[in-house]
Amino acid sequence: xxxxxxxxxxxxxxxxxxxxxxxxxxxxxxxxxxxxxxxxxxxxxxxxxxxxxxxxxxxxxxxxxxxxxxxxxxxxxxxxxxxxxxxxxxxxxxxxxxxxxxxxxxxxxxxxxxxxxxxxxxxxxxxxxxxxxxxxxxxxxxxxxxxxxxxxxxxxxxxxxxxxxxxxxxxxxxxxxxxxxxxxxxxxxxxxxxxxxxxxxxxxxxxxxxxxxxxxxxxxxxxxxxxxxxxxxxxxxxxxxxxxxxxxxxxxxxxxxxxxxxxxxxxxxxxxxxxxxxxxxxxxxxxxxxxxxxxxxxxxxxxxxxxxxxxxxxxxxxxxxxxxxxxxxxxxxxxxxxxxxxxxxxxxxxxxxxxxxxxxxxxxxxxxxxxxxxxxxxxxxxxxxxxxxxxxxxxxxxxxxxxxxxxxxxxxxxxxxxxxxxxxxxxxxxxxxxxxxxxxxxxxxxxxxxxxxxxxxxxxxxxxxxxxxxxxxxxxxxxxxxxxxxxxxxxxxxxxxxxxxxxxxxxxxxxxxxxxxxxxxxxxxxxxxxxxxxxxxxxxxxxxxxxxxxxxxxxxxxxxxxxxxxxxxxxxxxxxxxxxxxxxxxxxxxxxxxxxxxxxxxxxxxxxxxxxxxxxxxxxxxxxxxxxxxxxxxxxxxxxxxxxxxxxxxxxx
Length: 653
Fold this sequence. Notes:
Blueprint: H1 7-15, H2 19-35, H3 44-59, E1 67-70, E2 75-78, H4 80-110, H5 120-130, H6 133-141, H7 150-180, H8 188-227, H9 250-253, H10 270-274, H11 283-299, H12 311-364, H13 370-385, H14 392-398, H15 404-445, H16 453-465, H17 481-499, H18 507-515, E3 518-522, E4 527-529, E5 537-543, E6 546-553, E7 559-567, E8 572-573, H19 575-583, E9 599-602, E10 606-612, H20 613-620, H21 623-652
Helix pairs in contact: 3-4, 3-7, 4-5, 5-7, 8-11, 8-12, 11-12, 12-13, 15-16, 17-18
C-alpha cells in the first residue's frame, strides 16, 4: 500500500474487499460520533438517552406486579413470565445508563464539553439509578425475609426501591432540561405530549404501588394472625414451602368479603382484595384495573381515599393527592405559556400581513379587483399561519373564472404572486446572510475563540430559521446556560483573575463566580452609581465606556471633574464592595454597605456583567472557599500597607 496515499483512500482500499468489515467499522465510527459531545452529532445521544430514561420509568413499575397471592392456599408466588419480561426490559435500559456513565467519565478525562452537563452530580445519579435494586430485592430477597422484624425489613426494602425509582425520574427530568438547552428546543406539541406522558406515567406508577402495597398489607395481616394462633408458622408464606398447612383461620382474622374494620381494617387496599386483583389473573386485566385506580384517584387528588390508621397507607394517600395537585398546576402553567405564545404569534402574523398588503398596493396599485386582493391576502395569511410557502396554483384554481377580463386579471395576479414569493425568499435569505456575517464580524471584534464560534453560529442560525430576531448587542440572551457561562468567562476571565488570584482560587471557584454574573445594559449618559450612595454591586465592562469621577461646583454652573478615570472594555469597578462583603460575617438588604466615593456614569451605551449583593451572598455561602478568600483579602491588605508605609516615611522626612 502506498504510504503517500491519502488516509481516506487507504481506508476505502483496505476495506473494499470486505464489505461487512467496512460496514461494522462505519457503524462503530458513527456510534462514537454520536457519543462524542464534540462530534458532528452533539445532541443525538441526549435524545437517545432520554428515550431510554422514559423506557426505564415506564417499565420499572412492572416489578411491583410480580408477587401473586393465592387466597385459597394463603401463600405468595411470583409471575414467572412477567419476571422475565421485566428483567429483560430493565437490563436493556441499564445498558444505556452504563454507556452514559462510561462516556461521561471518558469525556471528563479528555475535555469538558459545553453540549452536555458532564458533572459528578450526573454520574452519581446514573450510578445509583443503575444498581439492580428491584431485581435483587423483589425477585430474591423479599420472599426470603424471616424473623420477627420481617415487616420492618420489608418496609425498608420498599423504601430503597422507591428511592431508586425517584432517582430515575430525576434523571429523566435532567435529561429533558438538557434537551431544552439545545438550539432546536422542543415545540408546543412536544410539551403537550410531555404533559400527557407525565399523567399516564403517574397513573401507571401509583397503580403499581397500590397493587404492591395491597399484597404487603395482606401478608402483614396474615403474620399478625399467626402470632395469635398456636401451630402457625409466621416465618414464610411462600407457595413453594409449607403449602399443606391448614390456614383457614386466617379468613376470620383477615376478613375481606364481607370486611370487618374492627377486626382488621384494610383501608384503601380493600378493593384490590375484594376484586381478586392480587390473585393469578391475566396480566392485561390486572394492569388495567390498577391503572384505572391510579388514574381515577390522581384526577380527584385522592379525595375519595378512605384510609385506615396504618401510617404507610396514609402517607401513600398523601402522595397521591400531592402528585395530582402538582400535575394539575404544571398543566395550568403550560397552558398559560402556550396562550402567551399563541397571542405573540397572532400579533406577528398580523404585522406580517399588514406589510404584505402594503407591498401588494405598492406593486400593483389599483389594477387588481377587490375580491382578488382579498383572496390573495387570505391565502398568504393561511400560509403564514401554517408556516408554508404560498401555493400559487391552488390560489388561482380557487378564484372564479367567468370572463375574459377576469382571466387577464388572473394572469396579472400570477405575476404579482411570483414577485411576492421571489422577493420574500430573497429578502429572507439576504437578511439571514447579513445576520450571519454580522455575527462573524462581532465574534472577530470580540476575539471569540475558535472552538466557541461553531456553537454560537449554530444557535444564531437555528434562531434565524425559526424567524426570531438576533440582537448582537445582547448575544448572551439567546444562549443556553453552559454556552452563556463560557461566553461570560471569555469576556471577564482576565478581570476576574485580578480579583480572584490564581494562587488561592481554583478554576471551579472562578467558574462558579462567573455563573452568578448577570448581563446588564445601561443607556448612554445614565448613572450606574452616584457619589455618596451605597456601593452594592460590582461591574465588569464588556462593551462601552464608563467614567468614574468626583465633581464639585467651582462657584459657577460648570462642573469641574477631578479624580477622573476612564473605564472601557475589560475594566471593572466595585472591588471595594467585594472585599467588604468577604470580610463581614453576614449581610442583607438592611446592612450598611460601603459608600461610593465616586460617580460612575456611562459615557456611551454600556454592556456589562454585574454581581449584585444578593448574588454575592449566594456565592458567599460556598463555605469551603470563604476562609481561603478572606485570608487572601487580609494578606493583600497587609502587603499594600507594608508597601505604602516606607513611602509615607519618606514624605514625612
